[in-house]
Amino acid sequence: MGRKVGLSMAKARPLSPHLSVWRFQLPAVMSILHRMTGVAISTGTVLLAAWVIALASGEEAFALATVIISHPLGQLVLFGYSAVLFYHMCNGIRHLSWDFGYGLNIPAIYTTGRIAIMAAILMTACLWLYVYFA
Amino acid sequence: MKNDTTMRTPLKRVRGLGSAKAGVHHWWNQRLSAVAMVPLMLWAIFTVATLPGLTYADALMTVQHPVNATLLILFLGAGFWHASLGLQVVIEDYVSNEGTRMVLITAIKGGLILIGALAIFSVLRIAL
Description:
The complex is a heterodimer of chains A (134) and B (128). Chain A has five helices and no strands. Chain A has 134 residues and is an all-alpha fold. In chain A, helix 2 packs antiparallel against helix 3 (59-70) and helix 4 (72-99) packs antiparallel against helix 5. Chain A is elongated. Chain B has helices at residues 2-6, 10-15, 23-49, 56-64, 66-94, 98-127. In chain B, helix 3 packs across helix 5 and helix 5 (66-94) runs antiparallel to helix 6 (98-127). Chain B is mainly α and 128 residues long. Chain B has six helices and no strands. Chains A and B meet through helix 2, helix 3, helix 4 and helix 5 of A and helix 3, helix 4, helix 5 and helix 6 of B.
């Protein structure tokens, strides 16, 4: 009985962080993106592992992997994988600086956030310009 | 108060959502693997982007190089380690049912260990 009352009270309590009433702000969006890109990279790394396994399995398996990678859809996945990687890496460095206590104030959080996004876009652009045109 | 808590086992404490004194270990490993991944990832992207060619022989030759083989194994190890720690936190945050959570974390970690082991063995087979 007491447990039941406790549970219903627990249900009625407001839940943080009130996602439905908050306006999205840069730091919040970047934080959510860090998680989402982390999950995406995990999947992408499994694909990279599959490529290595195909290479060790022989010429036939490797040929199939090459067909998949060379297909426009495969190239799109690779592009997405690289973009997401660069974002997670740049934003991850930002997280590491916070762990050391640097940049933990509102103006710095916005500045480093913008720098991380710009750096990720720049790195992705450089990589693909190099791959296609160099 | 102190005597009251020392009688409780770590399992009892963590079930009450208190500290089981293992959180810092997970947190620290997540940072260590993150720091390791920065140079390893830059190396991996640089190596793939500057591959001499895309044929079977080119790929074999690249992976066979001792430096590349070693860094690739470290990359796969640190990458799957970091992914495993990160996915664990995501599941812990969003899956509230304890049984489902435990099954999911075990399945994902098991899957990552399997794929990581396959990939590392593949590198060794190519390189040796």
